[in-house]
Amino acid sequence: MPASSLSAKDKLQAYIHLTRFDKPVGIELLLWPTLWGVMFAAMDAAQVDGASAGLPEMKLVFIFALGAIFMRAAGCAINDFADRKVDGSVSRTKGRPLADGRLSGKEAVGAFVVLSLISASLLFFLPLSVFYWSLGAVALAFIYPFMKRYTHLPQVFLAAAFGWAIPMAYVAILGAPDIWCWLLFMAYMCWTVAYDTQYAMADRADDLQVGIKSTAILFGRFDVLIIGLLQTAFLILMGVVMWHYFAPTSLGITPVFGLALVAMMFAKQNRACATQVPMACFRAFLDNVWVGRYLFVLIAAVCIWSSL
Questions:
Q1: Which letter, b or e, does each residue of 18-45 get, where b requires 16 or more Cβ atoms within 10 Å of its Cβ?
Q2: Is the distance from CB of 69 to CB of 183 less than 8 angstroms?
Q3: Does 3 fall in a domain?
Q4: Who wins on pLDDT, 117 or 52?
Q5: Which of 38, 74, 83, 298 fits a 20 to 30 Å CA distance from 91?
Q6: Whole-model pTM?
Q7: Cα separations in angstroms, 162 against 73, 127, 168, 255
Q8: pLDDT of amino acid 206
Q9: Domain carrying residue 59
């Protein structure tokens, strides 16, 4: 249907599809790790003041949650602009609004700019130093969709774009990122590359046909093995970070053993991916939202318990 003939309701629906507000899994995959960073940074600040743990200000939680939601939507808009000429050739994406003509490239870029400006407006409520760090987030969000034409590692750029909120949270609360911030960021990078490779495995046949690069293509027959190694690195790094923050609390390192459940989630995902069935790989990708939810609840519970 030509874009000019769409009703206002259909146009709104097209923008919702463009920004994926109808698919909240992507929002959660960015939101929960952002809040991990906010909570760990608050614990860092409390330990500096002599307390074992502390809760972040609700204002900061709200600001970073909104920032994650709007920047994820902005990233989807610029991603569809970058893929507008190939999405129509991929079975899973041929119904996207730029691929089927409901929206134009200019409208997608406009949505990216508006959503980025909305996210930027949140910076007025944060220290000025966070603004400078946010420039990196915007740059990464803009360039990562185009990387799949030049490198087999676009998932690494996606992970950096999604994870940049973590050092921003530390800057907002502590004034600067520390070693624990970067270990958390590295852990998130490993997890994101792993789950986005699962996502790419679902599209591998179409991507090979249209010339799109991905880690799924790069890893080839070693895809599940490398995903497992990345997940193992995530578990080790998260274990080290959680040990650092939880050891001084009344619960000690006991919550760290909660990562065993995440390991079981990963094992289930990898069994599904080992079938090489596209929909099984896609469902494995979707299951990662439970990793984010579970770790958020675990970290929040320790913060609350230790602050009582």
A1: bbbeeeeebbbbbbbbbbbbbbbbbbbb
A2: no
A3: no
A4: 117
A5: 74
A6: 0.90
A7: 12, 21, 11, 26
A8: 81
A9: 12-307
